[in-house]
Amino acid sequence: MDYDAVVIGGGVIGSAIIRYLSLYKTKVLLVEKEEDISSGTTKANSGIVHAGYDPAPGTLKAKLNVKGARMIREESKRLHFDYKTNGAMVISFSTDDDYKLDELYKRGLENGVEDMEIISGEEARKIEPLLSLDITKCLYLKSSGIVCPFTLTEALAENAYANGGEFRFNTKVENVEKSEGGYKITTDSGTTITTRAVINAAGVYGDTINNMVSEKKLHITPRRGSYMLFDGETKGMFNTTIFQLPSEKGKGVLVTPTVHGNLMIGPNSTDTFPKDDTATTAEDLDFISKEALKTTSSIPFRKVITSFCGLRAHEDSGDFIIGEAEDAPCFFNATGIESPGLSASLAIGEMIASLVSEKLKLEKKENPILEREAPLRPKEMTTIERNALIKNNPSYGKIVCRCEEISEGEIIDAITRPLGAKSLDGIKRRVRAGMGRCQGGFCSPKVMELLEKYASIPFDEITKNSKGSNITVEE
Description:
- This protein is an alpha+beta fold and 475 residues long.
- It has 12 helices and 22 strands.
- The longest helix has 20 residues, at 60-79.
- The protein is globular.
- The model has no long low-confidence stretch (mean pLDDT 96).
């Protein structure tokens, strides 16, 4: 066998799984059909680390949400990704609906959520002055947080790599079939990978992968969710994540700061086909705008800098599908991962790694690498620290992205770190160059020069993200 285990999918779930598997004495590989990690659902995520009040008690969603949220808080200190405990509110606009907050509070207690209380609309507005005067009551969740989905996934993947995990990008799985002693995976490049175990973390394509080997068929419906992101000037408008009362299709349109301070609103929830339809529409954006205005009338729509759409993997059962397939030994699913999937990601990774290790009889490493070196961020340093850094390496004093104040040195680091960026979006997700007001209009040419030099990619082959998204073409 080429590998003990192969993880299919390089989002936050796949990256969490390979990270925890890499802590065992095993040979493990992650395959991803795109050019980088975080290229599917993970890249279009709200970044909310939910407290855990919403999932039905007894479900995997409930169990893994609360545990995963705690793990994210703890691991952010060791793996150095962007995380902040900012609190959240679930708001009611009618006294007729206030009882629903009591139900959510009771559900939260049953799920093990800490630091909750129900407060009046007036008390909520003391915390967030821009909230609507129509709000009557609020469930206040002090343990809720926000995280950068990109740097979280990057940190997990880098740590897995440091512990011996292997990665193959631009590698689409075409077929998985049972073979003697394990599985044979065929890819679009014509290569065949043999492995003792397969872990399916393929997002909206999780049913496709499962149904290749199991007679217990899964069915995933992609759910579109669009967002609007605002300029950094909106920092401080809201410090807390604001939810409206949830519906059967999710937690509704939220108003939240990102972990970097930008205001963000969304998402809606619309079942869609095909599975790669991530186009934003005027209808979607109009809907989330009107819904967000119920929460606050102070939304500065003229400061929107971009909109985007992501897909959520809704499986018909309504819960996460995690574990070994009944009729396919050593084939493990981590699929149907919709909200609160990001919050639960580390708990899912740990759970799958434990199941695989038990099945394959793996031993834990005696001294695994549990920490990751933090990326350098000059603009967060003191003047003395920054001057010393620039004196030692002048590239940290050359600003490439003016909107986000990102230096040439940081972009070079993003390219040359383990599993470094290979596209403009890869740079954007790691260090925010191109994430600001001009959306890369000023800095992209220089970033492309650095990719050409440090990633050894010919200039006309540099892409925005996946294959075919070339920025320039040769005449």
